[in-house]
Amino acid sequence: MVCARAAFAASARYAGRPGSSNVAVHSPPERPPLVLASASPRRRELLARIGVTPDRVLPVDIDETPRKAELPRLLAARLAREKAEAAHAAAPDALVLAADTVVGVGRRILGKPADATEARRFLDLLSGRRHRVMTGICLIRPDGKRSERLVTTILAFQRLTEAQIAQHLDSDEWQGVAGGYQIQKRAEAWTRFLSGSHSNVVGLPLFETAQLLRGAGWLRP
Ligand SMILES: Cc1cn([C@H]2C[C@H](O)[C@@H](COP(=O)(O)OP(=O)(O)OP(=O)(O)O)O2)c(=O)[nH]c1=O
C-alpha cells in the first residue's frame, strides 16, 4: 500500500495536465521526454558524459541581441529562459532544457563573433586579461514550472602572441562560439587560471544541470 501510494505520488508530479488524472496506480512513474532546446553539439556531448541522452533535440531560433546596457549574466539568464520558453511552446508535454553561454569582460559582452575581424577584436580584449564565462540554464516542466541557474567561471588567458592569434583565426575554432574561442581546443593552452566549472565554459555546467534534472525527477538521486 505504501509502495502504491509512492508510485502514485511520483506519477502525479506530471499529472497536472488535462486527461492525465486517471494514471494507473500500479504503473511505474512516467518520465516526460527530455527535449534539449539547442543546436550546440557541445551541449549534447556534455550531457552524454553524465549519461543523459535527450529524447529530442529541438534547436530554437531567438533574437540573441543584448538589450541596451544589459549585463552579461542577465543576458545569459534571459536567453536561456527565452530558448526554453520557445521550445516549451513547441513541445508542451516535454521536460525542456535550454542554455546560453556568454563571455563577459567587465560590463562588455562577447557573444559569437560575426566574422574574423570581430574574433580578432575579442582575442585582443581577452589577451592577458581576466574574464568571466556565464551560462544560464533553464528547465521547464510540462506544467510550466521553471527552474533556473546562472553559473560563472573566471578565467585568465596568458598574453597572446601575434602568431597565436593568427593561427587561431586561420582555424575554424573561433566560429559559432561565445568569445571566439573554445576552452576545449587550443584556448586550453592559453589558460593560466580557471576558477569554477570547466563544463560551464564549454556551454553546460554539468553539476548544476544534473541538480536541475534530479529536482525535476528526471534523473534518479
Ligand atoms: C567560451 C566557449 C563557448 N563555447 C560555445 C558554447 C555554446 O555552444 C556557444 C555559445 O553560444 P550559445 O548561443 O550559448 O549556444 P549555441 O548558439 O551554440 O547553441 P544553442 O543556442 O542552439 O543552444 O559557445 C565553447 O564551445 N567553448 C568555449 O570555450
From TrEMBL:
Cofactor(s) required, per the database record: a divalent metal cation
Top-rank lineage group of the source organism: Bacteria
Gene Ontology terms: biological process: nucleotide metabolic process
Catalytic activity: UTP + H2O = UMP + diphosphate + H(+); dTTP + H2O = dTMP + diphosphate + H(+)
Intracellular or extracellular location(s): Cytoplasm
Active-site residues, record numbering mapped to chain: 100 (proton acceptor)
A cellular-component GO term for this protein: cytoplasm
This enzyme's EC code(s): 3.6.1.9
Enzyme class, first EC level, given as a word: hydrolase
Keywords, ordered alphabetically: Cytoplasm, Hydrolase, Nucleotide metabolism
GO molecular function: dTTP diphosphatase activity; UTP diphosphatase activity
Annotated site (Important for substrate specificity): 42, 101, 184
Protein function: Nucleoside triphosphate pyrophosphatase that hydrolyzes dTTP and UTP. May have a dual role in cell division arrest and in preventing the incorporation of modified nucleotides into cellular nucleic acids.
Similarity annotation: Belongs to the Maf family. YhdE subfamily.
Protein name: dTTP/UTP pyrophosphatase
Organism of provenance: Falsiroseomonas bella
